[in-house]
Amino acid sequence: MEDIKKSKEQLLRELKKHKNEATDSIRKFRKEMEALLEKLEEDSIKEVEAEYEKIESVLHKQIKEAEAFNVDLVQYYKKLERSAGNKAQEFVCVKQTEKTTSKAENAEQVLRKEPDVQIGFQPDVTIKNFLKQLKTLGKISITRTTVYTKRAENEINVKLTTGETFLHCCIFSSCFISDGSLLLTDFNNRKLKHLNISTATVKDHLDLNAEPFAVCQIRDDEAAVSLVNKTIQFVSLGNKITTTKQLKLNHYCYGLANKNERLFITDYGSTVYIHDMTGTMLHKITADRSGNAIFSDSRHISLSTNRDRVYIADANKGLITLDTQGNYVSTFNDPDVFNPCAVCTDGRGNIFVSSHGSSNIVQISEESNRKLGVLRGRMRLLSVSFDPQQNKLAL
Description:
Number of strands: 22
Radius of gyration: 38 Å
CATH class of the largest domain: Mainly Beta
């Protein structure tokens, strides 16, 4: 009862924290909307000013032109008056006046055409009507923390009966794919294995040209495998697994994850790389904003499905969290996380970390970065993956 009390009090503190964060998000969103409206206001006023200046320029030009003709006509009128009685001067003045008068008459036809001088504004009522339809600035989401307990355990032998040199398989990585089956990398035997969970059999396998470390799904019909020879091997997930393109990189490739057509790769050391699907390096992450090294022995990597977070198991430092732009966020350490090697998420706000230095699987909350539970096993673990559809954890 005391433990329950403390747990509920902790949840109450977290609830208040989440409420404040949600309120801050609403105010931030409102300010963003205000900034957008201010920008629309500025742009609308600029359009009015531009139209005004255009028409104003035309009117000023016409005023100057009318003034110039007026000055000329008055000047020649006075000349005619002064030349009265002098036939020669009268003749010259009349000719000059006729030319000026003719030009003025031609210009008059143009100058009498008045440009539009009314500038109005008609609001886009769709904006106003859309806002009237809204009840709130967005949807309120309630995330319930799921603390898992083990209900059953099943061991599956993934050793092939033929064609494998080593007696023991060394599964460095696993990955559930869209149909609920499981991909495994067998480092010792240089194979990618496709496991049917329901029948507990290896349904297919692919021989690779180097030892594989990690595997991740790219899309429903495609996966990628990191190899020890600085290569990312793409494979097709049809009826039979087949190799497709390769990316030859200039750094070691260990942990591998994919999001939005970007590959996040650890190098079994001090760096995390982000590449596009053509192999172009987009980002290289080694240090935080203060210049301190983030990683020491980076292993597997996982990306959150509902948060802007990247999780890296570092065997020396613990579970390291970055955002998807590569900025350092935090490091999680706990006595139950000893030499962490693998990490995955459940898509529901939880992280699972397995340790090579122990047999523990530790469940951590993505939101609070708090340990929620420990699954204690019988072996040291190199890989971990979770399928939220089947609620199955593969080790």
